[in-house]
Amino acid sequence: MRVIVNGKPRELPDGASVAEAVAAVTTAASGVAAAVNDEVVRRSAWAATELREADRVEVLTAVQGG
Q: One short Pfam family name for this protein (predicted)?
């Protein structure tokens, strides 16, 4: 299935979860947030939240700086 991850089309297997979409774009273990269709998904729900064709996923990584 095709979803939009951080503004770019990406092919994921049917039934892919938010956790799989996040893993496709980052290896960061902490400081990561995800939203699907403009709604934040709690990290504890990533594995259980199934994506659908044409969903828009935003993956944000916190960056320390000054």
A: ThiS
